[in-house]
């Protein structure tokens, strides 16, 4: 149970937004979820269920929904952003006049914006007045929505440049089943959350091809090295990549079949085109657009990321997964800790 009861707004009613709304309401807060789809709003308010996402979960009575930003954000003492990274800026411009001035703004979306190569923290800092900046936080870590709904033990990290804000998020969100740690490494936490999705795509593909556990372990380990290079180059700390938002989220997303990004890799390995994959996926797999952004970001800063480069070729240049793995194995031999 939270230290005090708050009025919390969750922007986004997909699987993760619904799970977080359920978690916060279960923790005693008064929760309003903003949803784009009218049927989701009516379903939550009238049947206490989200008819499109997490359909089997009965939602608490202290959780309601709205399709209007002004209504959803009225009186909010904390706001969670759980909308796809690629529409964050667009939606923020519509809602920003309704955002509370002195309340934590918690980013729960994972991704890097196409074109600008901005993280979600950067998007908020660019779109909101400076007085809002100290309130920006990030919540990330190994947390499948279905298991959070089921109250299975989960551990995540809340990051904010102002640790007092991170602690406010920690105490508001934490329950007995949802443990929250704090850090001030916003860059590291965001990079870990965004980039692990890329690795899940290639590992889903290698598993679908039956390349084995050795291959999976190698890809996770060397993938973590690439994620760490990017994060540290941009100002993150290496120890963050060994924590929940780094290796923790990486292992979950790469090995758990509830991972949408892992499913993308599986479908590609089974011969589906990228267009077919997009049509078959009910929800956004953030790793697909993030792969393009990460590829451009790494090359902009001169960072060696052979696995990310290879995933980019699989998605955007139609390289098949088996050829991708062969190309990685055939690279010049080197010292393990070469940068």
Task: Report on this structure.
The chain is α/β, with parallel strands linked by helices. Helix content is 49%, strand content 12%. The protein folds into two domains: 7-184, NAD(P)-binding Rossmann-like Domain (Rossmann fold), CATH 3.40.50.720; 194-329, N-(1-d-carboxylethyl)-l-norvaline Dehydrogenase, domain 2. It has helices spanning 15-26, 38-47, 69-73, 88-95, 120-127, 145-149, 163-173, 186-208, 213-233, 244-255, 260-269, 274-280, 287-300, 306-316, 321-329, and strands at 7-11, 30-34, 63-66, 78-81, 105-107, 136-140, 154-160, 178-183. An eight-stranded mixed β-sheet has the order 3-2-1-4-5-6-7-8, with helices on both faces. α4 links the parallel β4 (78-81) and β5 (105-107). α4 (88-95) runs parallel beside α5. It is globular and about 60 Å long. The N and C termini lie far apart (45 Å).
Number of strands: 8
Shape: globular
Assigned CATH architecture of the largest domain = 3-Layer(aba) Sandwich
Q: Largest beta sheet: what is the strand line-up? A: 3-2-1-4-5-6-7-8
| Mean pLDDT over the full residue set | 94
Number of domains: 2
Number of helices: 15
Q: Approximately how much beta-strand content do the residues carry?
A: 5-15%
CATH topology of the largest domain: Rossmann fold
Radius of gyration: 19 Å
Helical content band: 40-55%
> What's the order of the H and E elements?
EHEHEHEHEHEHEHEHHHHHHHH
CATH homologous superfamily descriptor of the largest domain? NAD(P)-binding Rossmann-like Domain
Biggest pleated sheet: 8 strands, mixed
């Amino acid at each position: 149970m939270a230290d005090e009861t708050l009025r919390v707004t969750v922007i986004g009613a997909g699987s993760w937004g619904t799970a977080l709304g359920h978690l916060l309401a279960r923790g005693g807060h008064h929760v309003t979820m903003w949803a784009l789809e009218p049927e989701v709003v009516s379903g939550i308010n009238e049947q206490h269920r989200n008819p499109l996402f997490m359909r089997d979960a009965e939602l608490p009575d202290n959780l309601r929904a709205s399709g209007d930003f002004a209504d959803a954000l009225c009186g909010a003492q904390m706001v969670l952003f759980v909308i796809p990274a690629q529409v964050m800026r667009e939606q923020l411009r519509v809602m920003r006049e309704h955002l509370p001035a002195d309340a934590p703004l918690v980013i729960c979306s994972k991704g890097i914006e196409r074109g600008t190569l901005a993280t979600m923290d950067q998007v908020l800092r660019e779109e909101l007045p400076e007085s809002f900046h100290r309130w920006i936080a990030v919540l990330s870590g190994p947390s499948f929505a279905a298991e959070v709904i089921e109250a299975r033990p989960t551990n995540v990290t809340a990051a904010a440049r102002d640790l007092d804000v991170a602690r406010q998020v920690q105490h508001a969100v934490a329950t007995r089943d949802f443990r929250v740690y704090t850090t001030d490494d916003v860059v590291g936490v965001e990079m870990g959350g965004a980039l692990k999705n890329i690795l899940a795509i290639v590992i889903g593909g290698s598993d679908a091809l039956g390349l084995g556990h050795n291959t999976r372990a190698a890809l996770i380990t060397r993938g973590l090295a690439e994620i760490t290079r990017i994060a540290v180059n941009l100002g993150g700390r290496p120890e963050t990549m060994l924590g929940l938002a780094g290796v923790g989220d990486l292992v979950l997303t790469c090995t758990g079949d509830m991972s949408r990004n892992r499913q993308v890799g599986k479908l590609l390995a089974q011969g589906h085109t990228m267009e077919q994959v997009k049509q078959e996926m009910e929800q956004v797999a953030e790793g697909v657009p993030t792969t393009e952004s990460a590829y451009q970001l790494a090359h902009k800063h001169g960072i060696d990321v052979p696995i990310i480069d290879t995933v980019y070729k699989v998605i955007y240049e139609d390289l098949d997964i088996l050829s991708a793995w062969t190309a990685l194995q055939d690279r010049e031999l080197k010292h393990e800790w070469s940068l």
